[in-house]
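Worked example (supplementary).
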Amino acid sequence: MEPLFLFLLTNLFVYSDVANDPIHANWEGATAGRKYECERLPQAEAHRRYPGEVPQTSAIATTLFGVDALVCEHRVMPDGARSPRDEAVLRDLSDNVDELVGLAAAAAGEDTQWVVDAYYPDPAVVRKVASAARVSLAERGLPVSDAPPQFTAGDVEVFRTLPMRDAIPASCRRWWDIRAQLGQPLRRRDAFLALALLDQHESQLHVGLCQGGTFRWLR
Amino acid sequence: MIGRRLFPILLAVGLGAPALAQESGSEVSPDEERQAQVERLRAEIANEVQLEAYDLLDELVFSWMKAPPFAQPTPVVLADVIVPIGFGSGLEALIENHLAQLLINNPECNVRLAHCPSCHALIVHSDAQGTVISRGVDSPKALAKVRGLAAAEHAMFLDFEAEGATLVLRTRITSLTDELPIVHARTLSTATLVAPMLRSPTQLKSAEDARKDYMQLLEGRGPIMIPVRLSLTAFAPGDNATLSVPVPVPWLQVGAEMSIGSARAWTGSLAVGGTFIPTVYTGGMVQGRVYRLLSGSSFSLTRPNVYVFLGGTLAGLQGPAAAILAPTDDPPIIDFLGTLVTYPSVQAGIELRVSNRIIVGVFADSMPTLQTAQNVGNWLDQLGLGMDYGVVQINSIGVEAAFAF
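After joint prediction of all chains, the assembly is encoded as:
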């Protein structure tokens, strides 16, 4: 009894550290562990971001131990709140869309007027992806229209019968033709950017560029 | 007779009830179960997302105050507020109201919200080129005919999305002309904000200033604190006690407490104290303690904080009552002022601190040199477990209340 009591007493001060260590979230099981998004940071950077929680670096500790911090935050949307495919696409939406838009902007060249559309099974996600791409283009200082490319009802019916991989190039040709029919100014550099999920079972967005009625997949 | 008739019925109902409940439970379809689960999850995270969304709106309007998107006050219709997929329209309404409040309170951002019912309405427009069915904001040509020239010339779209652990706000303002050009776009993320960004709508400030305030708040608490503490201790009654009740000793202490870092997870204190009961005893003490925060990794400014502490005390009591605490094998010093008993003790306890100003706690002392005194016993023996605790003895317990400066 006596050694046990003394052992518990001497460890009194480390209980808080043990309880607050995010690594112990694993005790809650794999499901609970997936709620966290963790990042390992040097102590100086962790102190800069979380000054109230991480102390300043100490010269001695840095020399002897190389202290770092494991920063774990709860995901805003826990697992199960959205479908796994939507979650996979939306979790890194900014990074992915910025990368795809960067590819397209480099391929299209300067002085391009942009329109954007997205292709995804869920219309709510279509709005998210298209909005992210438009804002990303506009933040690069590129002229972009908020209007999606215009098609007739008959065109849309035809596109729906085609596989996505074929429907988007077909929509590119129709977009160019309709602009000509409507008497809109045709400039060969004007571009229609398409972000799409080509297969129902994948979670990686693809990007294609339509310029002058010609379509090409960039990724 | 009635009871004998009722018994089988009650038994049947009793046995049948769980089965019926199970049967009725099985009628819940997997879709309904999933829907219920999603609703629970939404309720859990709704408050947190709402506050983060408000932070992002504050930052957006503040950036407009510094760099207005328009040179003159310009009416803008709020065309769309899109909340993260998985949330309902309740959050949209809250966000819309908060934005309206910010824009009304900060007119220097030159964005004036305009009321435009036809902008949101579904409009059917036919001309020689065809028939278009769309919302007003998506078809400026049709909208111009419906609303005339009085309404807004620009539409604003706010799109919030949860991306991992961060909430992202994408804002775009579109000119309501045929081409619908985007004239302003901005992306903000909670990953780039500092924690205390929830600011008063009438006194918005930059992220840098908010961070400066936060640092001042952290540092303003100061590394040093002066606690004034009143404690009351009670010695455990001894086995052969000559006193019928335990000896209570009140102490008034003052000292200094210093924290190692701004998180205040570890602190240490040094205090001196005194006690005086006329004609009974006079005493003094020196005490050192080390504190460890238990209720989190950093001191909370808003919630009570729980600390544990370990310390050592050197105390002395002088006067007629001190003699009764003297150990039998170590006679006390007797001088012209009376009997003097000095004793060291090891102390452990727990404290609750509110705002780092009001402190209450309980503690236990072990006093090795007083363990042979007739009137000093072991509180552990009072539990009546019949165990041998060896050198581990709790000779005194106490409560304390403190106010810190």
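Two points are worth noting when inspecting this output. The two ends of chain A are 68 Å apart (CA to CA). The first helix of chain A runs from residue 2 to 10.
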